[in-house]
Design a protein that fits this description.
The protein is of the alpha/beta class and 318 residues long. The protein has one domain: Thiamin diphosphate (ThDP)-binding fold, Pyr/PP domains (Rossmann fold, 3-Layer(aba) Sandwich). 40% of the residues lie in helices and 10% in strands. It contains eleven helices and seven strands. It has helices spanning 2-17, 32-39, 56-62, 66-74, 106-120, 141-152, 183-187, 200-215, 244-247, 255-265, 271-293, and strands at 48-50, 129-134, 157-163, 166-167, 170-171, 191-196, 221-226. The strands form two sheets. Strands 1-2-3-7-6 form a five-stranded parallel beta sheet, with helices on both faces. Strands 4-5 form a two-stranded antiparallel ribbon. A hairpin with a 2-residue loop joins strand 4 and strand 5. Helix 1 packs across helix 11 (271-293), helix 2 (32-39) runs parallel beside helix 3 (56-62) and helix 4 packs across helix 11 (271-293). The structure holds thiamine diphosphate and magnesium ion (MG). The site of magnesium ion has 6 residues, from strand 4.
């Protein structure tokens, strides 16, 4: 969580400084606990994790190298997308990290398809696949079709719904009429859970349970975490439409600060250790950026314009 926060703070300042980052910057501030609790409990090499634009923390926890993020944002030819895809559209399908197509539901059927193909080839084993989604994304056709298919096929799919109260500027009460998004799980015969998405321990527990249910053959599991996006939709957006009453409510509390308070209270870390953690994250981010800055951009005259799946990253899922 700390590494993701420090990295994203740095990406935000590079974006504001101008010139270094082409395209948007979309951050996960306030969503790190929910994201990390999932990414940490999946295992790279066995499971699949389709994180979205607010899942920097979960991706690092899953094992995506920090360089993948800096190289994609800064357009290095040595990055996983060879400097040709912007910001968050990166992945390593062979390692269980499908590249994000869209934030709005398309990854549910991608992960379901990856699980189906492994099953048909007899190599699914006890792997699970996780697909992140936002509150807004749960109203798209892609989400409903993907979830329905996964439920019918009883796929070991975890759907992590980060309900950050807004889809860009549209609040929950203009998005859906059900009492809680978890009701959508019931409608498809899927097991669903609600959790305080700012509470790291609660998130770890609920994802542990959901992942073990999926591994044990109980079909898709939907976890809805409530939290607040502690920033704009992207760094271009000042989020002025979010009222102060919400920002200053329980929803608006910072999950990283809460996790640090929890670690201190329980004696799991000291103030000095937490400061050292921030410092080592800072160094890691600085190293990744310094290395990326020395790397070449893609050369359009020499570039092979074939797709990701034909490069060294050839997808074992095909
Ligand atoms: C078809 C389509 N419409 C609109 C967008 C722009 N867009 C990207 S994310 C987003 C809001 C998504 O809200 P939510 O699912 O709640 O996720 P959050 O951004 O809150 O994490 C919008 C409108 C898009 N990418 N694709
Ligand atoms: Mg949202």
């Amino acid at each position: 969580m700390t590494a993701a926060r420090v990295l994203e703070e740095k990406l935000a300042s590079l974006y504001r400084a101008g010139g270094r980052i082409v395209g948007g910057v979309y951050l996960g501030k306030g969503q790190e606990a929910f994201s990390v609790a999932l990414g940490l409990q999946l295992s790279k090499g066995r499971d699949i994790f389709a994180g979205l634009i607010r899942d920097q923390a979960g991706k690092l926890a899953f094992g995506e190298p920090m360089l993948d993020a800096t190289r994609t944002y800064l357009g290095s030819a040595l990055g996983p997308m060879r400097g040709r895809d912007g910001n968050i559209h990166r992945g390593r399908p062979k390692e269980g990290l499908p590249a994000m197509i869209s934030h709005l539901g398309s990854m549910v059927s991608v992960v379901a398809g990856m699980l189906m193909s492994r099953r048909l080839q007899g190599r699914l084993g006890d792997a699970v696949g996780a697909s992140a989604i936002g509150d807004g994304g749960t109203s798209t056709g892609a989400f409903h079709e993907g979830l329905n298919l996964a439920a019918v096929e009883k796929l070991p799919l975890i759907i992590a719904v980060a309900n950050n109260q807004y889809a860009y500027s549209t609040p929950n009460n203009r998005q859906f009429a059900c009492a809680n998004l978890v009701d959508r799980a019931k409608g498809y015969g899927v097991e669903g859970y609600e959790v305080d998405g700012k509470d790291l321990l609660a998130c770890l527990q609920v994802f542990q349970h959901a992942i073990s249910r999926a591994r044990a053959g109980h079909g898709p599991q939907m976890v809805v975490g409530s939290l607040l996006r502690l920033g704009g939709h992207g760094e271009h957006d000042d989020a002025s439409y979010i009222p102060d009453t919400i920002k200053h409510s329980e929803h608006g509390r910072d999950c990283l600060q809460l996790a640090e308070e929890c670690a201190l209270e329980r004696g799991w870390a000291t103030v000095t250790e937490l400061a050292a953690l921030r410092e080592s994250s800072q160094k890691e981010v600085d190293r990744a950026l310094a290395q990326t800055s020395r790397e070449p951009s893609p050369d359009p005259y020499k570039e092979s314009w074939r797709a990701l799946a034909t490069s060294a990253l050839v997808d074992e899922e095909k």
